[in-house]
Structures are given as C-alpha cells and as structure tokens.
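cache lookup: miss for this entity combination. No prior model stored, computing from scratch. Input as submitted by user K.M.:
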Amino acid sequence: MDGDVVRDSDVVRDSNDGRHSAVRDVWTAVRASRAATVGLALVALHVLVALVAPLLTGYSPTANDPQQALAGMGWDHIAGTDQYGRDVLTRVLHGGRFALVVCALSTVAAVGLGTLVGCVAALRGGWVDNLVMRLVDSVLAVPAILALLVVVTALGTGTWVVVAAITVVYVPGVVRVVRAAAQNIVPLEYVTAARARGERRWSILRREVLPNIADVVAVELAMRASWAALLVSSLSFLGFGANPPTPDWGLMVAENRTALTVVPMATLAPIIALATFVVGLNLAADGLSKAWGIDRFRRSDR
Amino acid sequence: MALFVLRRLGAMVLTIILASLLVFVALQALPGDVATQVLGRDATPDAVQALRDQLDLDQPAWRRYAEWVGGAIQGDFGTSLASGENVGSTLGLHLRNTLLIAVIAIVGGLVLSLVLGVVAGLYRDRWPDHLISGASLVGMSVPEFVVATLLVLLFSVTIPVFPAVVLDDADATIGQLLPGIWLPALALSIALAAYVVRMMRTSVIDVMASEYVQTARLRGLGTGRVVLRHALPNAVLPTLNVIALNIAWLVGGVVVVETVFNYPGIGTLMIDAVYDRDLPVLQAIAVLSAVVYALCNLAADLAAIALNPRLRRGVAR
C-alpha cells in the first residue's frame, strides 16, 4: 500500500500560484496514485451495481418464499436465502442503494456547507470566527451516533431526516478542517491584493481561496463519505435507518445475525459488500491525501 | 501553566453547557407538543396532560432548561419517563457496566496499536508493515457491529468460549458480568486500534528519521534501547490528541457494540431511551458524553505538557 508514494507530489502542489482547474488536479492526483485508482474503481463498481441491480438477478429483493427459507449456498441461490426465503445475493446487490444515496447526499451537503462556513470564518475573523468555532466545538462534543439518535428521536426516521441529521453532524468537522486550511491562504499576497483591489468577499472566496484549498476539500469528501457509509449502516443496523423490507446491508446483518449458525452467508455477504465499498472510499482518501501531502490522520476531529 | 489549565477548564465548561443546550433544544424546543410526540397521536387527553405536568411543559422552554441545569448540578437528572426511576441512579449503574468494558477496550486497544504501530514503522514497506497497514485499512472500513458480529462467529459459534449475548440485568454483580465483557471489549479495542495504528506508524517513521535517533544509533546503542528510550516517547506525543479523541468517540462505538451483545451498559440504555422517547434519560446521556469528550481533550493537553518540557513554560498557545 505504501509502494505508491508519489514522488513528484510537489509538482501537483506547486500549481497553487495560479488559477487552475480543481477537477484536473484531482484527476492528476488520482492517476498518479495506484491506491486512489483502485479505490475509486471499487466505489464506481458499487455505484454501477446499485444502478443496474434489477438487471443482474431474476429474483425480487423483497418477495418472501417460505418454501425456500434458510437455504444454503447452491445453484438456485448462489449465496443462499434468509429466514423469509429471499435470495441473499439479490438483496446484497440491491442493498447498497439506500446507503449510497444517503452517503452521497449527506457528504456533499456537509462538505459544501462546511466549506462555505469555514471559508467565511477564516476570511471574516474576529467575533464571527470565535462564535463559529465555539459552536463547532460544542457540536463535536456530542458523539455522532448520539447526535443522530437525538435527531431521529425528535423528527422520526426517514431518508431525508437521516440525510439532514448526518449533514448536521458532519458540518462542524468540515468547518474546522477547511477553516484551518483557509487560514493559511488568507494572509497571502494575492488575497491581500484582491482585497486592496476592492473585490467583494464572495468573489475573493470563489476565485482566490476555494481553488487553493480544493485538495483539502477533495480529501475531506472521500473521508467523510467513508464515515457516512459506516454511520448510515450502523443506523440501519440499530433499526433507525432503512425500514424493512428494504434490502440494506446494515439492516441485513441485523436481520440475519440470529441465523448466523444456520446460514452464515446471509450475514457475511452484506458485510463483504459494505466492507469493499468503504475500503474503496478509504483507499481513495489515502491516495489523494498522500499525493497532496495532507496528513490524513493527525487531525483533531472525527 | 496554571493559567493555561484554567483557560482550558473554562472552555471545557462552556463546551459542555453549549452541548447540553443544543441537545435540549433538539429534544424539547422543536415545534410541536413534546407530550403528544412522546405518547403518540392516539394518546388520551388525560395522559397527555399528565405528561405535560410531569415535564413542566406549561413553563417556557428557557425556564425548564434552567431548572434542569439546576438539578443536574446537584446530581438530580429527573425521573425516567419509561421506568419511573431516578435517572441518576440508573445512569450510574449502566455507567459502571460500560466502564468495565471501556477500560479493558482502551488499555487493550492502546497496547495493540502501540505494538503494531511500532512494528509497522520499524519494518516500513516490508511485509510486516504491509500486513499491519492492510489490516488497519480493513479495520477502519467496517462498522463496529461487523467487528462484533465476526467475533461472535469466531468465538461463540466456531470456538464456543465466550457468550454471544449477555442475559444479566444492569444490577448484576461484576462477577456475573465477567464472562460477557471480553467480546464487547475486544470489538471496541479493534475499532480503536484500527485508527491509532496508522498514526503511530507515521509517527515512528518520522521519529526514527530524526537526528537525535541517528545520534543515539551512532553512539552504538542497541535498537531496543533506541526505540524504547529515545524514539517511543516522542512518537507517542503527536498521537496523544487523536488517541484522546478516539477514546471520546468510543462512546458512539459503545452504543453499537453493546446492542450486538445485549450488554446492559450506557449504550443499550440509550437505544431503549430512543425507542421509548425517554427525554430525561437521553439528555443525561448526552451531557455525560460531552463531559467525557471534554475530559479526554483536557487529558490530551495535560499529557502533552507532561511529555514535552517546552510546553510547560506556557509559551505554546
């Protein structure tokens, strides 16, 4: 995993002095790192499978078939069936849909919102900055899963509630990271020059600050996505995420755990699917942060 | 130094107060009647009114918060809506049980990550490093309930040595709980170690490349002595903060792992409270975990000062 340290990372980082395309930067970094390539390929595979799942299998993911209940692995049911006789492989193929949607929406929302607030805090400074950081500290003091459960208690379950809850939980962490990165940019000459030119704050943010913290934001996206995937599957496992009979990896583990001795594959198959998806996201985050020289682990938030 | 500690304490108290306020607002001050929400739509008007009286809902929200804080400072967290028992004593009992597995998990997790991190760092880019880094990548890519489920498959089903579920109530003696604590503790330490190992590894690599370690080597000191006496203290220092935060984050892992094993700790108490919409219990748990988080942060700061003499003069920060 460490054989692919990017030696020419400085080349990528040097592009800081001019305006450039953030998308092209990410692409260069991905291609330069085997870990990132493999990771994103894994993620893409899962997205593809989730999209075309109904075409890949002849069984319905939700229809019960009591005669076939708790069947082992065989020709008819490659990964066996669960206690209701539903085909495990079919449910695993469909099982990423809820998690992927929630994960993508909440990550993008949290990183987008957090980037905005973090940049504004760094640019404004003063009492705005102080207030934002105090709030960030207090939200971070409540563990993610507890905060989620509090929101679910207050608002009930449902896709949108879960998306909103994960977004709220992750925004403070993003704010902290982005603010720290933006604070390195704000004192630089080109920001001072833009200020002296009398450019609006919004335009400074968009044209001077954002392009130069794009690397931090990209790593943040990959990392938050991996945590969001773990969080949403834990929520489903606890019974507050996807509702039965929806096929969902976390929910499947919860349902089939009691039959672990009879049909172990019904529990192991969703575990393998979930693990490969999150490993993919982690590899992408690893590869990108290594290519850009960002220390992914010695950060003070989670 | 004293001033620094005082300032950190002040910030800590402020954080706890704000966190409790946030949770209070989320649970009690949202639009809609809390009593109807708790009891459901088809509750009788009498029952709703009784609950309104019990929660003092006729008072404005800020007054209820102030009263709740007043009680909490004196150790009175109110009465559980579900069981009718004192929240403080219920919480204490479950906290004892959770501490039982948390302490083992933290000690085990730290030893595990220290050893594995140092080995991976010393054998950088060779097979032990690839093995350990790969394992840690997988470890941080699976949620705690998966780790716990796999442990059940391994140590309760395949080789039946530990129970897969705990059947005792919260007031069981420690002796009764003892057989059931090992698997939850192991699941948590694996989850903890998966993160800390990687930091330790990077840290060890950095320190081993530093000039004073080179000097110690050139003086002819043995590898064991160089690693233990010269490298390790400085390799641990930068990871302290993250270790502390990971311990604070264990509160979340505890919820999931305790549910898997039906272990009668804070986690299962919380899940029950969510199902029953038991607001006083949820509030108390939220504040408790905010306190744990703040204390972990403070401990990390103090440990950093203890390990790094330069910080003691108060020049930093």
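stored under new cache key. Chain B has a mean pLDDT of 83.
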